[in-house]
Write a structure and sequence with these properties.
208 residues, alpha+beta, 6-stranded mixed beta sheet, 15% strand
Amino acid sequence: MPSNPFSDTEQLRAEIAVAAARMIAEDGADYGSAKRKAARQILGPHKIRGDLLPDNAQIEEEVRQHNALFFAETQPARLLLLRRLALELMAELSQFSPYLTGAVLNGTAGEHSDIYLQLFSESAKDVEIFLLNKNISFAVSESPHFRSGQAPVETLSFLTPPPQSEGVHLCLYHIDDLRGNVKAAAGKRPERANADTLRRLMEEEETE
């Protein structure tokens, strides 16, 4: 009996998602590079059809399952530490309307995860001056805008003081980007959360 092409595609996509999730959870790879490397491992050095690549939501779910299976004794404590540190940072940066995003928010953060905050201000220079006044040295790079088609945004990266020495990345947006872009679609996990939303999330997860 001939195989079902759709089933074959779904199976390959699932295998790529599992392999990518392992790289993210164990090596700290980003989603894009993990997806590409996993696809090459499974499909070889051939041109890969777009429909064979899992989306980030599928990979994220596999990261959750990987964490639950292999890091159940350590990952929850690691996640809690990063979320508490994120709350401290958000309090210090409150004048810039900070929102948490990424693995620390969605609950998949592991040993290699950093804290990602989106800040909103009239000028990126305001944030730079704030950090310099706190004697925080930072590196400058760019990150994709959360709106597709928009120019990348300046990103300031630094390590928190010892003993934590955790990586922090501040993605700097104009204050106008804040309007209408912080709500999650119904039934979906929020892509960003302010301090109050993060606290509620942590309280809800504690009671589960």
